[in-house]
Amino acid sequence: MSAYSKTAGLMARGAQFLGSEYAILCGAMSWVSERNLVSAISNAGGFGVIACGAMTPELLDTEIAATKAMTEKSFGVNLITMHPQLFDIIAVCGRHGVTHVVLAGGIPPKGSVEAIKASGAKVICFAPTLALGKKLLRSGADALVIEGMEAGGHIGPVSTSVLAQEILPTLAPDHLVFVAGGIGRGEAIAGYLEMGAAGVQLGTRFACATESIAHPKFKQAFFRASARDAVASVQVDGRLPVIPVRALKNKGTEAFTAKQIEVAKLLDGENLAMLEAQLQIEHYWAGALRRAVVDGDVENGSLMAGQSVGMVTREEPAAEIMTALMQECETALLGRVAA
């Protein structure tokens, strides 16, 4: 019998779908969710996800191969829908036999879901609303992630708890829905599982794992931070549809405001197409995040973090984090049964 029998029962659908022991995905964090952390998450019983971000097909090819060399367990790849070489990187995933592809950053372009499924992989999409969730499922998505605004990185306007109440009762009985955003402890996982979620996704909680390659200064910034330090970026021009990003406030968040103004002026002068403008913003974030994660520039880089950052107080192996989450969840579920 599993040490977490109650939790395992509620996670059964999600775990079977993912091919993992636990239905706990690690959110795709650019520069952080690479071979070391992804393999550690999967080896610990969860489901690691490579963050492709702005990688070229060649870089992604190398990263998938390196991850496969470090784990025999299931893992997925997260692709940004606006990537200029989306179909090329889908082909890379197909050649490696990647079992699950997560499409993030917008509505999947025409033919992308079909291309992924043709390789035999499962498709997971982000659904910010009930209506879009239904549409994505009709279009071939095998599972959904609903992510609240408490999450780190790109966020929507609605909290996780409200999204869960809006979407789970309608879709969870017949479909696989994973909940994300602001989850840092197992008690929260228990609540969403009881509401019908197939599993959960956590990013911030794993960002400072021992196996994470994030710079020590990046990790120290997380250890010092509280929930109130993780703030959402401000959109300065309504004509430039910039998705807000949640990160720890520093000079980098101020620089992003200036970047938006710069790009908006180029749009005004018709010197830039809208798609290119959005790509410039994405490339800005990729560069700013790299400065923080890889170089340790915590003043000018982007310290993307969810509001659960206050629960990240020390460096721990991924396996210990996973064990703590499962134990907390199981204790919470058993306590409710006893009551």
Task: Kindly report the CATH topology of the largest domain.
Answer: TIM Barrel
Average pLDDT works out at 94
CATH class of the largest domain: Alpha Beta
Tally of discrete structural domains = 2
What do we call the CATH homologous superfamily of the largest domain?
Answer: Aldolase class I
Largest sheet: 8 strands, parallel
The topology string of helices and strands comes to HEHEHEHEHEHEEHEHEHHEEHHEH
What is the count of DSSP helices, taking H or I runs of 4+ residues?
Answer: 13
Report on this structure.
By secondary structure, this protein is an alpha/beta fold. It is globular and about 65 Å long. Strand 8, helix 8 (186-194) and strand 9 (199-202) form a beta-alpha-beta unit. Helix 11 (251-268) packs antiparallel against helix 12 (274-293). Helix content is 46%, strand content 14%. The protein has helices at residues 5-18, 35-43, 57-70, 86-95, 112-118, 130-138, 160-171, 186-194, 204-207, 216-224, 251-268, 274-293, 318-338; strands at residues 24-26, 48-51, 75-80, 100-104, 122-126, 143-147, 153-154, 176-180, 199-202, 230-232, 245-248, 303-304. The strands form 2 sheets. Strands 1-9-8-6-5-4-3-2 form an 8-stranded parallel β-sheet. Strands 7, 10, 11 and 12 form a 4-stranded antiparallel β-sheet that branches. The chain folds into 2 domains: 5-213 and 312-332, TIM Barrel, CATH 3.20.20; 216-307, no CATH class. The two termini are 23 Å apart. It contains 13 helices and 12 strands.
